[in-house]
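Supplementary Text 2. Reproducibility record for the structural model of the 218-residue chain.

All settings were left at their defaults, and a single model was retained for analysis rather than an ensemble. We include the record here because the model underlies the residue-level annotations in Supplementary Table 4.
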Amino acid sequence: MGVKENLSFIKEQIGNNNVKIIAVTKYATSSQLLEAYSEGIRDFGESYVQDALKKFEVLNFDISVKWHFIGRLQKNKVKFLIPNFYLIHSVDSTELASVINKKASENKITQNILLQVNIQEELTKAGFKRKELVSSFEKLAELSSIKILGLMTIAPNTNEEKIIRECFQELAKLKEEINTNHRANLKELSMGMTNDYKIAIECGATMVRIGRAIFKTT
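Retained model, structure tokens:
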């Protein structure tokens, strides 16, 4: 199957849910990017800055295309992201948020971000711990050159649906807790990838980050 057929299947799975597909372009060719675009995709995700800068050129004819940075971000790479990315999904510390805020201020823009949460507190994953984020949110909200749109997480690498579902449910609860306690207006939940996006949607995802299921060729 090609990109068209793959996207058709994914859209059937999403149904009437208001969920945005972020097409992760890690393994996509230029022709596949254009095919995804022709099928209505306008949001594309990349994990590596240099790879993204090359792929920008493929779709630079349409200003409605939005690029999302979804990978682990080192503070010294922030200067390459701003103002090139519409949304940075992987802001995993107050220090990184402060660096992004400073660079955005220098560019006279407001940078959209998501706060990455390590719900299961896995040693191999980055992200705020739940209590850490709750205690840090007020300070983060004071940074005037970033706009916190919501939260992001990566589910544990397991086949146990119960564990995956609990992770996504906890992120949704955390969003509501922050909105209530801090009078915030977080709307986005970026959660779910190729292997678990259907569970994420059931748990309230507003964005799913899908690569292999879109761009696979067999």
